[in-house]
């Protein structure tokens, strides 16, 4: 009885062992399947990583190329803008120079015109003052008879003659010249009634003589 019992126990143990061994084998098979799937997934992940890396590299290269093109274009545009700015500055300077030159020419012309007018006015004024002073001096230095005749000529206005003072022969004020003053001197040295006056006549003696008579 004891031997049979032991044999039965041994059979049970063997069956249990084999049963456990089958479970282990099944688990091992499942593990191998899982590991195979993991390996396949890892290979897929590796391929995806490589593809992503290649895509990133291509994108980086494309971005770098695009950045280089943009940089070159920006430099070219900046160069063009700088050239245009220099041209605009040169044109502005040239315009300022020409405008200044035009202003100076206008000022010079106006100054020359003002100086010409001022000089002409001074000349006219000087000639007028000189003619007035010369006429006054000639009248003051003339004999009393000539003074009376001059007063009479102013009031009675005798008919003009070749030897009388003609107002129409006098140039307008401010336009007398030295030739007209010489003509005035010649007209003042006219012949008095009843006597002939020469160019070298001593007027001073006549004046003293007339003063003695007075």
Describe this structure in words.
- With 214 residues, the protein is an all-alpha fold.
- It has a domain at 142-213.
- It is 82% helix and 0% strand.
- It has 4 helices and no strands.
- It has helices at residues 2-141, 144-156, 178-188, 203-213.
- The longest helix is centred in the middle third of the chain and has 140 residues, at 2-141.
- The radius of gyration is 68 Å and the shape is rod-shaped.
Radius of gyration: 68 Å
**First-last Cα distance:** 212 Å
Approximate shape: rod-shaped
Unreliably modeled segments: 160-169, 191-200, 207-214
* Number of DSSP strand runs: 0
Mean pLDDT: 71
Enumerate how many helices there are, as a single number. 4
Main sheet characteristics: none
Percent of sequence in beta strands: under 5%
Alpha-beta classification: mainly alpha
What letter string, H or E per element, gives the SSE order? HHHH
Helix content: over 70%
Summarize the structure.
The protein has helices spanning 2-141, 144-156, 178-188, 203-213.
Sum up the structure in keywords.
82% helix, rod-shaped, 4 helices, 214 residues, mainly alpha
How is the topology of this model organized?
Elements (H helix, E strand, L loop, with lengths): L1 H140 L2 H13 L21 H11 L14 H11 L1
Helix pairs in contact: 1-3
């Amino acid at each position: 009885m004891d031997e049979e019992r032991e044999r039965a126990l041994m059979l049970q143990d063997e069956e249990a062992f084999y049963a456990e061994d089958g479970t282990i084998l099944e688990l091992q098979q499942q593990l191998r399947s899982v590991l195979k799937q993991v390996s396949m997934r890892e290979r897929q992940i590796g391929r995806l990583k490589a593809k992503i890396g290649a895509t990133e590299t291509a994108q980086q290269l494309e971005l770098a190329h695009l950045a280089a093109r943009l940089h070159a274009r920006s430099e070219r545009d900046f160069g063009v803008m700088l050239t245009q700015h220099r041209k605009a500055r040169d044109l502005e300077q040239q315009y300022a120079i020409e405008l200044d030159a035009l202003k100076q020419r206008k000022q010079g012309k106006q100054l020359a015109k003002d100086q010409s007018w001022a000089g002409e006015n001074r000349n006219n004024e000087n000639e007028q003052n000189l003619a007035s002073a010369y006429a006054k001096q000639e009248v003051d230095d003339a004999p009393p008879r000539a003074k009376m005749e001059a007063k009479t000529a102013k009031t009675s206005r005798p008919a003009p003659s070749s030897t009388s003072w003609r107002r129409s022969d006098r140039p307008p004020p401010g336009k007398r010249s030295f030739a007209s003053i010489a003509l005035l001197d010649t007209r003042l040295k006219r012949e008095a009634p009843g006597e002939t006056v020469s160019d070298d006549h001593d007027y001073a003696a006549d004046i003293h003589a007339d003063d003695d008579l007075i």
